[in-house]
Amino acid sequence: MTNNSTTTDSKRYAWVDYAKGIAIILVVYRHLAYGLLAKGIEMPASIIAANDMLYSFRMPLFFLLSGAFFVRSLSKRGENSFVFNKINTLLYPYLLWAIVQITLQIVFSAYTNSSRTLADYLDIFLQPRKLDQLWYLFALFNVTILYLTVNLLTKGNKYIHLLIGLVFLGFSPTIREYSALYDIMLHYIFFAVGDFGAKFFFQENVQQRLSNPQYLFFSFFVFIGLQFYYLFHQDMNMFLYLPIALYGCLFVIQLSSCLAASNKLQFFRTIGHYSLYIYLLHVSIAAILREILIRSGLTNGTILLVILIPSAISLSLLIYKCCVKFGFSFLFTGQFKVKQRSKSVSLQ
């Protein structure tokens, strides 16, 4: 009974891993393309334009998916364990890898695109956007903890969350220079939408509609039109940006549902399942590979990108699995726990 239930849940949530897989590939694509540009490698304008066109929804999708599992995770773990889980899986790896990455960039400054000093360690808390890709983990942790706090104060009123998210979104451009706060205000609404829409996303009849190829076909043209508009209006009003980003999220969810229902292109699902570890590792791995390839005489931007994207993803998976196998899982997950004594809860 337990095994059958687990298998059913795995199939039921397969689209989530597909969606994360698609999103993380787009993230890697962007980071590596702009990394090549920063290294002085020429890239075709079409590759950069396609990258920018698909920028609106990538990170909002991660926040939306996290919000969709908020109630489930909170109900399963309880408040204290929930917080410690987020410390272990978001804050801990963020702090550890931010310190590691800054240190490596200082030591190997001659081979990286970043010019780091000791002052950059302060940006771990003040300006996480300056730390390349790592800002997302800190932003998701902050949004999740703030959302939990508001949830407790409002007794789970989802409409208040949506209202707060809209207010935050409207004011977010005014604090763009302070990225720690900006990322909270920009992404809170997507977490709230994920939580609000969770009861719909996981319904069987909704999943059947989302996985219908005919709906996906018509949705594709709307998706392309909206993202094309975004490409040329990236400084648009935030309340115009919101539906464009949300529709991008919806399209990826539709595509993911279709792939999950047909059980096709399962490598997307595998990549999505390990998306967090790919996120942590791919920039450093790609930097090493990029330097090796360029020094070997390969300077074609398109060829470099085609080589680097799958290589960075594959090596990230390999390194993560090797670390876990040989007892280095502490590099990715903290070990802080809530110790239960009788019926009371105390922190260990």
TrEMBL record:
Top-level lineage group:
Bacteria
- Which of UniProt's keywords are assigned here? Acyltransferase, Membrane, Transferase, Transmembrane, Transmembrane helix
Name all Acyltransferase domain ranges. 14-320
- On whether Transferase is a keyword of this UniProt record, the answer is yes
Report what the protein is called: Acyltransferase
Gene Ontology molecular-function annotations: acyltransferase activity, transferring groups other than amino-acyl groups
> Is the Acyltransferase keyword given for this protein?
yes
Identify the taxonomic lineage of the organism of origin: Bacteria, Pseudomonadati, Bacteroidota, Chitinophagia, Chitinophagales
The record lists the membrane-crossing segments as 21-41, 53-71, 91-114, 134-153, 160-178, 184-202, 214-232, 238-262, 274-294, 300-320
